[in-house]
Amino acid sequence: MKPWILGLTGGIGSGKSAAASHFGSLGVHLVDADQAARWVVEPGRPALTHIVDRFGEQILQGDGALDRAALRTRIFQAPEERQWLEQLLHPLIREEIRNVLDEARSPYAILVSPLLVESAAQRQMSQRVLVVDVPEQVQIERTVQRDQVPEEQVRAILQAQASREERLRHAHDVLVNDRDLAWLQREVERLHEFYLSLQGGQS
């Protein structure tokens, strides 16, 4: 029987990666949308050739890999370039995610994506949505500590992501991650037991 798909999301610094990794250690098959986005532009993949054709060789690093910072700078200045890039990459990322999910042998599989709420296509792939949620101040403190970046930068990222309210509106389940890692892992184990009892992700 094909596994049903749980979409796992949360804002920056919410702990969604820690939650995902604990689900993984329980034997749940995971696919990470961010990783899929990186795979599709690796050297030798057709997408990278298209990007170089469009933006020129200066978009590459010395080793032939994509220079993400240079590309970000280019597309932030020109909305039409960003649109072009999204039209090129989004179908490829979707296909990559599908391929990885098709390999799943666990009763349910997880699509981990920071943009699950913003991306209708990714949301449609999921039968159920779990949001890892924390108060905004906690998100900011954790991210500043983890990435050693200024608070303003974290606030700017928060502004660009879906609002907490918007994410919670799409949630079937919410894991409030405002305690320690041991507590988060116990919550994941509790949800895992519940998810194993579900048919097709619906309770």
TrEMBL record:
<dbReference type="Pfam" id="PF01121">
    <property type="entry name" value="CoaE"/>
</dbReference>
<dbReference type="GO" id="GO:0005524">
    <property type="term" value="F:ATP binding"/>
</dbReference>
<keyword id="KW-0808">Transferase</keyword>
<keyword id="KW-0418">Kinase</keyword>
<keyword id="KW-0547">Nucleotide-binding</keyword>
<dbReference type="InterPro" id="IPR027417">
    <property type="entry name" value="P-loop_NTPase"/>
</dbReference>
<protein>
    <recommendedName>
        <fullName>Dephospho-CoA kinase</fullName>
        <ecNumber>2.7.1.24</ecNumber>
    </recommendedName>
</protein>
<comment type="function">
    <text>Catalyzes the phosphorylation of the 3'-hydroxyl group of dephosphocoenzyme A to form coenzyme A.</text>
</comment>
<keyword id="KW-0173">Coenzyme A biosynthesis</keyword>
<keyword id="KW-0067">ATP-binding</keyword>
<comment type="similarity">
    <text>Belongs to the CoaE family.</text>
</comment>
<dbReference type="GO" id="GO:0004140">
    <property type="term" value="F:dephospho-CoA kinase activity"/>
</dbReference>
<feature type="binding site">
    <location>
        <begin position="13"/>
        <end position="18"/>
    </location>
    <ligand>
        <name>ATP</name>
    </ligand>
</feature>
<comment type="pathway">
    <text>Cofactor biosynthesis; coenzyme A biosynthesis; CoA from (R)-pantothenate: step 5/5.</text>
</comment>
<dbReference type="GO" id="GO:0015937">
    <property type="term" value="P:coenzyme A biosynthetic process"/>
</dbReference>
<dbReference type="GO" id="GO:0005737">
    <property type="term" value="C:cytoplasm"/>
</dbReference>
<keyword id="KW-0963">Cytoplasm</keyword>
<dbReference type="InterPro" id="IPR001977">
    <property type="entry name" value="Depp_CoAkinase"/>
</dbReference>
